[in-house]
Design brief:
Oligomer: heterotrimer
Strand order of the largest sheet of chain B: 2-1-3-4-5
Helix content of chain B: 25-40%
Chains: A alpha/beta (560), B alpha/beta (135), C alpha/beta (325)
CATH class of one domain in chain A: Alpha Beta
Structural class of chain A: alpha/beta
Number of helices of chain B: 5
Number of strands of chain A: 9
Strand content of chain A: 5-15%
Amino acid sequence: MFEEQRLSEIKKQRQRWEKTTVPSWVSRHSERKNEFSTVSGVPVKRLYTAEDVKDLDYVNHLGFPGEYPFTRGLHATMYRGRLWTMRQFSGFGTAEQTNKRFKYLLKEGETGLSIAFDYPTITGYDSDHPISRGEVGQCGVAVSSLEDMETLFDGIPLDKVTTSMTINGPAAMLLAMYVAIGDKQGVPREKLGGTTQNDMLKEFFAQKLAIFPPKPSVRLVTDIIEYCAKNLPQWNPVSISGYHIREAGSNAVQELAFTLADGIAYVESTLERGLRVDDFASRLSFFFASHNDFFEEIAKFRAARRLWARIMKERFKAKNPRSMWMRMHVQTSGCTLTAQQPVNNAIRVAFQALSAVLGGTQSLHTNSLDEALATPCEDAVRIALRTQQIIAHESGVVDTVDPLAGSYYLEHLTMEMEERAMSYIDKIDSLGGVIPAIERGFFQREIADASYKYQKEIERKERTIVGVNDYTVEEDWVPLELLRVHPKVEEEQVARLQKLRRTRDNRKVKALLGKLHDEADGDKNLVPTIIEAVKAYTTLGEITDVMRTVFGEYRELIIV
Amino acid sequence: MSKERKIRVVIAKPGLDSHDRGAKVVARALRDAGMEVIYTGLRQTPQQIVETALQEDVDVIGLSILSGAHLTLFPRIMGLLKKKGLSDVLVFAGGIIPEEDIPTLKKIGIREVFGPGTPTSTLVQFVRKNAPKRK
Amino acid sequence: MPPSTRVQRLVKGVLKGDKGSIARTISIVENNEPEAQKLMALLYPKTGKAYVVGVTGPPGAGKSTLIEKLVKELRNRGKTVGVVAVDPTSPFTGGAFLGDRVRMQDLSVDPGVYIRSMATRNYPGGLAKATKDALRVLDASGKDVVIVETVGAGQSEVEVVKVVHTVIVVLAPGLGDDIQAIKAGQMEIGDVFVVNKADRENANKAVSDIEAMLELATEKKGWKPPVLKTSAFTGEGIAQLLEFIDQHRAYLRTGVFDERRKERVENELIEALREKITESILSDFRRRGEWKRLTLKVLARRTDPYTAADELLSKPLKPRTRRKT
């Protein structure tokens, strides 16, 4: 990128600086640590110069926004044209309560919906199942049937919003419910926009919500990808996630690498179905965390775009540029939030959100300051949303594309992230791919070790967490009333379900469940029948149970 | 050959909560502190947890929960422990448990509730100090 | 509560199958508490009815998952089962992660199943004793089948498998090691060889590799160890495995087992005697001034340990009062 002569002059001067200016300063003010590194352990030097990016080829490595390899951004004008979607993950209690929260957030300026379901729903159990006792509506909204979903979207036109659903095992069921509502509202299916997370592979080693074993899980994921490619062109069938991998304890490099490896696995499984890469790849989307190390995270997002574009072009021979797009949603990292001095979390979230924007995300969720203590209350989630709005409207960073490009440090770090992630991807390939690696406990071991290491660093005070291992206070201050989900929620939900079971056409339900059973046993795409079933008010648990019978239940390989 | 009694601990995840990062870090820290640790895995019913504690003759039970279901699950666990004659087992909890619930939990026999950010060294010390001395 | 009453109460509980009593008793014998010997003395006569199966093999072979399937099948056939799962103690920290139970957690609430996890605790030969005693406690408690799961084929594992009726060696293809790398010890102690994770690619090859190795290895007279594929995941092979175990049991009944047991009982008696002699004599010697003097002499390299021992033994022992146990 720079001519040889200029580089050697810079090198000469840098070496002089290191021999004279630096030591004379350091002798009086020693550096805070002997060695500096990013949160993920990538070494950080005192200073970066043009030397550190001498191999960086602007045209081929950075390019232009909207063009391969998309390092600088997916779209030519990025936020000058359109801001990222402000999409706050929400849900608690009953569908009615969450419907209110949705409307509140839309009024306050969020531009996309994102549903948080409760544990029974995401694990495939109805609210009235014995295993659901005490869990209904606690960390998300309870949805056991289309009836709940209808209440959830009451007064919300599906042709005016897009909705992201954090749902994996039962993804097909929730997608089916959304389609059913769209049908009822008269919205053409081609217009329905949104995302189902539907990323089963990471469930096996990170989020741990797998219901069925790997093979049938991937079958279901692919069913959804295939169905959407043919019927729901605006829908993102998967949100290939690194967020949960990071939250489970991995570092940024692992987060990046394992997510891309999962993406590779899904492309392969869909190709095996007989689709061509350009038929479906443009709708694959991604989901990352935004953690504390400001520059490392920005580098990660940029490296992710470049890596995925290369993989799609070179490995999978995609022709359509849209197939090479890594469209991403980012959520600020939950595990960095502290229960101590929770107001500090708002500051953390602000920086994490800023790095996501500087990293060029398409969509962003900012955590609320009370989330280390409870499901967010209204005031807290409003502040989180305001954080995004302040960045968007007051900071100016959105007025030019990829403003940090060219920074010696950032470009060097972006290259580092890419290289390190590729080395992991090669390793996973050598193990035979993601599923064999899962069976060997590869990811689990990496994550458990990284997680333990991070914790030990905190306890040895090698890593400061403000308010937790330093700058602590005796009396803490929580300025908000924390949200509590009332036990009545469960009672009401159970009563509603039992009424539903009595009043619906049970013969129809039984017939459809039988049909589903046969199809699950074969290899037909299950989504159409699931849509029929949810329209007849078959419950989520009933559908999942049929699948459990056919696919079996997953048993976790535990590595500590 | 050390004659010092090994402290046996069960680390359990009751209910549907799938966040196991903390539980695993705690299990590992206790193991590194010389204890014998059984991690139950996810999705444990109160019966499973108590049966494990009984058959393994543990000294300590650590319950990890972040899903908000503690007010339903913990009383069931403590009730079963009492029924099986295991009231002398040290029980502690961690995760996302609102401070206002802690007095209730202590009343039913949870000795201590440790919030996010608790150093594992604190836990190790707590267990060493409070594990029952076997008769 | 006076010790002897407590011992009786525990014995009564164990014989009734009370889980709390079994749990406490195993702890007592594992920790070698004062009542341990008395407890085992009362329980030993009640042993001998359970069929004991040892399951060994390298880590990652899927032993625990296989055992879970075995236990479920045995339960279907109306048998009660005890399981002892052994995991290594870290030589650095002294702690252990007892991770086998987690793969059988469904069984925790089955009243006809008892599962106990034990750490090796790095006792020289001690693992064998504590584990053997735990097996006996489960035997005495009335379990039809007792399964012990150990890792690898170290010296102490070899000790344990001497107390079992049938040894199952579990292997899995593609674990990274070649099947050829099975430790020699495992080839000799195995009565049935299982290639688990049968759905994997090289499962069939693994089976034929083992069969070939068995041809070459010393033949166990009268019993040719069968090799089979299982998938703990699908349940394939479990019924066949039980069939082989039954066949082995029939073979042992022809007198082989009684012979082995006789040999083993003699060894146990020697071991018990050795332990007691060492215990009592050692404490006597240690109390003497000779001990300290000779230790210093060895330290200074003016004598060696064996010569020093001879010197200690050359002096007459003080008469010892019989210690009541």
